[in-house]
Amino acid sequence: MRVLYLTDPQLDYLADQLFTGLWKVLGRENVIDFPYKPAYHDPSCQAWYLPQYAVSPFKQDMVLDSLREKAFDLAVVSAPRRNVIGAVRGLMANATLPPLVLVDGEDDDRLRWDTFEELGCGLYFKREFREKSLQGYEAWSNSWHSSFEDHKLQGRVFPLPFSTILDTIPHIDVMVKDVDVSFFGRASNTKRIEAVNILKKASGIRFEGGYYFEPSDRKSKVLGGTIARLLTKLKGDSYLSESERGERLPPCEYYSLLARSKMALSVRGGGFDTPRYWEIVACKTLLISERPDIHIPNNFEDKKHALFCRADLGDLVETVRTYASDDAARERVVQDAYAHLLKYHTCERRAEYFLDTCRRIL
């Protein structure tokens, strides 16, 4: 199979992981990114979580010639974003595209039916994918507005969560895991701040980590109470200063922390699915997470591959204490989880799932 991969210039975890998985499975010569994305090929633009390979850019006239020769079997709209949609429109105005699929890695669970319909896509792959029949009233209430789109897209929408690119995960040998539990990430959800505060205050637990803010974050993000946040927004809600934002851990320090940790916590950010959910397992550390509220095919199972705590984090401290002192139980879960990750959740396995779905439905 030969794939035309339509790209956005900005980094996008889901789109970038899927591209990597596709060229690893199909071969570099069979996955063409257009417009040419420097993050995939140019060492001066390399992202720490992506492998690269050198290639000459495929320009628009070359892509159009290939389309007219029917050289592609599949075209992937890698994100529902303006630049990608513009590239698709430009090609469609001058040639006929092969079967087209839409990949949506946005944080929300909204289905973008207008984009899907306008471009004439055959399949929709969604990162934050919720099935109302599996999630009950809460999921229904969160997505009631999209029920009409759901009906039109029935049998055309499939979950596509993040995965892990193993060759970008460093292998770090540690003599002793001196941290019981860790977490470090962007404070993109107040639950992350809450989790850090709970673990910092817990007696008898060796916790290490914290959170940081981006320059685009405002002061209301620091506040835990709804009323306090509302009052701050009414006053103008200025951006956080540099000293208030904190510092982001470099990748080498982040992975070193995971290697030193008996357990590591994954907490939802803008959406439930985060790269950390998969990276923790890839680092052979015990994953603690709230129970997923999105559909993840072949997901980790509680107490077999991971530890799922309550959504309100009420049992988080108890869970950490139980497994911090039980090396045998912890190691058993870690090894089973890593084997499960290799079987289902590397970027290669995610690409195979994606391709198998396309072959079966289109």
Q: What this model shows, in words?
A:
It is a single chain. The chain has 2 domains: 3-163 and 347-361; 166-217 and 246-344, Glycogen Phosphorylase B (Rossmann fold, 3-Layer(aba) Sandwich), CATH 3.40.50.2000. 41% of the residues lie in helices and 14% in strands. The protein has 15 helices and 11 strands. The chain has a 6-stranded parallel beta sheet. Helix 8 links the parallel strand 7 (179-186) and strand 8 (207-212). The longest helix has 18 residues, at 327-344. Residues 133-148 have low confidence and may be disordered.
Task: Describe the structure in brief.
With 362 residues, this protein is of the alpha/beta class.
How are the SSEs placed, and which strands pair?
Layout: E1 3-6, H1 13-26, E2 31-34, H2 38-41, H3 60-68, E3 74-77, H4 82-92, E4 100-104, H5 113-119, E5 123-126, H6 132-143, H7 147-152, E6 157-159, E7 179-186, H8 190-201, E8 207-212, H9 226-234, H10 242-245, H11 251-260, E9 261-266, H12 275-282, E10 286-290, E11 307-309, H13 316-324, H14 327-344, H15 347-361
Parallel strand pairs: 1-2, 1-3, 3-4, 4-5, 5-6, 7-8, 7-9, 9-10, 10-11
Helix pairs in contact: 1-15
The low-confidence parts are: 133-148
Q: Rough shape?
A: globular
Helical percent range?
Answer: 40-55%
Q: In percent, how much strand structure appears in the residues?
A: 5-15%
Features:
2 domains; 41% helix; Rossmann fold; alpha/beta; six-stranded parallel β-sheet; five-stranded parallel β-sheet
